[in-house]
Specification:
This protein is an alpha+beta fold. The protein has two domains: 4-239; 247-287. It contains nine helices and twelve strands. It has a ten-stranded antiparallel beta sheet. A two-stranded antiparallel ribbon has the order 7-12. Strand 4 (56-59) and strand 5 (67-71) form a beta hairpin. The longest helix is centred in the last third of the chain and has 19 residues, at 247-265.
């Protein structure tokens, strides 16, 4: 099968400990990270800046909230054009003194070629009664967005969009309005703690090896020839993400989850509800980092 395969990071969100100034987060002396403009901050933040590479940095006056850096696919493309590989960026980001978490990372696989998109192939393998044709740890049925009449193509979501792991398979050529090309994209989305564990794996192993290993740990379609070509190569066993969970969640689970359940079982519903609301607000604030 005459196909061209590539893979790369397509998104990364990083949280930082409290920073009074942007230069405490990033090396602003590099042209890519110079401020292009100040912009309206995200919710719960007080200042925001768009950088020349396209990344968006947010600062908060709250020491608990800290800072946040959002980098999309166009940012990584700009860095690659400037000679900074994905691996080099991960190495650099690991040296940032105020860095706390990689709260999200997307790693994608591009399959160029073929007569048409391969997106529907994966759905056929999922629906087959032969479970050996689709191996997955993801729960629930896939969700399908079919915009082929609108020329945006089809997207299939494996896993929960609100969960810690999600696989998107979609027609990238249609999304880019490239009518004469066939371009299928398989995108792995990881949120913390899996995103943090992925970055640690990438510090110890080849990035492409880590990307395909984490994808195969979530889902595999071993009967599809194009898929086998896409994921061909060395693999590792992804590290246990539980080792990299935020200590806050471990502490909350150990000390307060049982407390809420006990109060509810004893009929103290007001106390249980009030503290559950407090935990929910804390979770929201932390997940926004």
């Amino acid at each position: 099968m005459d196909l061209q395969i590539s893979s790369h990071i397509d998104k990364q969100n990083i949280s930082f400990r409290f920073c009074e100034k942007l230069e405490e987060m990033l090396p602003l002396e590099g042209l890519l990270f110079e401020v292009a403009e100040e912009m309206r901050p995200f919710p719960f933040y007080d200042q925001a800046f768009r950088l020349k590479c396209g990344a968006i940095a947010n600062l908060s006056k709250s020491r608990d909230q800290g800072g946040r850096l959002d980098m999309g696919g166009e940012v990584f493309q700009e860095m690659r054009l400037a000679g900074i590989s994905d691996t080099e960026w991960l190495e650099l980001s690991n040296t940032l003194p105020r860095k706390k978490w990689t709260t999200r990372i997307d790693y994608c696989f591009n399959v160029h070629g073929g007569e048409a998109s391969f997106v529907e192939d994966t759905l056929a393998e999922w629906d087959t009664k032969d479970k050996a044709r689709c191996r997955t740890k993801l729960r629930g049925q896939p969700r399908i967005t079919d915009n082929r009449r609108g020329k945006d193509g089809m997207t299939i979501y494996y896993g929960s969009e609100k969960g810690e792991k999600l696989i998107r398979v979609y027609d990238k050529a249609a999304e880019m309005n490239l009518l004469s090309e066939a371009w299928t994209r398989v995108e792995l989305q990881l949120k913390k703690p899996h995103s943090a564990a992925f970055v640690i794996d990438a510090a110890d192993h080849n990035l492409a090896t880590v990307g395909r290993s984490w994808l195969l740990d979530a889902i595999d379609f071993p009967a599809l020839d194009w898929w086998k070509l896409m994921i061909c190569g060395d693999t590792i066993t992804p590290r246990d993400a539980r080792e990299h969970r935020d200590k806050f969640w471990t502490w909350a689970h150990e000390h307060f989850t049982s407390w809420v359940v006990k109060r509810a079982c004893n009929g103290e519903l007001d106390e249980a509800e009030a503290f559950s609301a407090f935990l929910a607000e804390s979770i929201y604030n932390r997940d926004c980092k």
